Fold this sequence. Notes:
Elements: E1 8-10, H1 20-35, E2 38-42, H2 48-62, H3 66-71, E3 82-84, E4 101-105, H4 114-117, H5 135-163, E5 179-187, E6 201-204, E7 210-215, E8 221-225, E9 230-233, E10 241-245, H6 247-253, E11 262-264, E12 272-281, E13 286-287, E14 305-306, H7 307-318, H8 323-331, H9 334-340
Parallel strand pairs: 1-2
Antiparallel strand pairs: 2-10, 3-4, 4-5, 5-12, 6-11, 7-10, 7-12, 8-9, 8-11, 13-14
Helix pairs in contact: 1-5, 2-5
Fe (ii) ion (FE2) is lined by residues 204, 206, 211, 262.
Amino acid sequence: MEAKEPPIIDFTPFYGPECAAKENLVKELKHACQEYGFFQLVNHTIPSDLQGSILHQSKKFFDLPIEVKEKYSKDIGGFNRGYERLRAQNFEKRTKGDLKEGFYLGKNLPLEDPNVVARKFGQGPNKYPEELDDPAKFRNVADDYHSALTSLAMGILQMLARTLDLEDDAFNEFCQHPVAVLRLLHYPPQEPDASELERGIGAHTDFGAITILLQDTTGGLQVWNNISSEWIDVTPVPGAYVVNLGNMMMRWTNDRYLSTLHRVINKSGKERFSVPFFFSGNPDYMVRCLPSCEDAREGAKYPPITVGEWMAGRYADTYGTSEEKAIGELRKEPEARKLES
Ligand SMILES: O=C(O)CCC(=O)C(=O)O
Ligand SMILES: [Fe+2]
């Protein structure tokens, strides 16, 4: 079978009454989750000017001098918010690090919020850069965008519940006080003579439930196709969201749904901007295999784990606190085996 790009799915029926088109949407989503773990979503009602604004504010931040950006380092003050310098992440562990810089934002919660006081995973205050021409604009756009994407994520999960023959509200508890991370990303163009191993972001799967990614028109995102064993480009569709399933979905569905390897290589000669939104749910929620997905003989492949424990472990893996484990996981990937042998 010829490998194809992940499908483009029209979300319009979600906003309308029950009808054949809505049933068809559920079928399309189910097919995408089983065969690709990825799809592009169009007609999702997030205004294009809000999408343009978040990309614009992101560029403004990354254009600041490095000393200013470092003032907002993610390493200062905890809460997983703020600036992450070039090459800080290194998914494939075969170069000096991924050729991108980032800025992490979440829902802005004050220090006295009960979930922050209780040190729940991923809950806390944002950092907002003061040195921009219009700092209030950055703040408003980031907060509005985060809240719009939180609603979209809940809508998508409602439809994904239907694909699993569950009630629409099946993921409601999961969506309470969610860990939801907005990551502004800037990929400088890679040098023409860069190593073949140079990556904007190395091959990885996402940790959470779903990721909703806005990419500019540069291109460079690729997904791994397990059947044809090749990397497939995800061609930018203006205004669309690239949605992919994270590891939690595999745990829930006992691997019926895919959490697919993906990477970015920016050979365009231009800088690339993207904004993934990672929706990982309520830190106290126990992710366990859905009864309908248990295997008749083998039961569930993965033991139950809370969102908080799962996320903390996965972050530790990618940020080097458990480097050996991360390398061990990468070795399982076909591409890595090929390159090593
Ligand atoms: O920038 C992109 O297109 C992908 C980013 C990504 O995969 C991630 O941040 O997990
Ligand atoms: Fe990713």
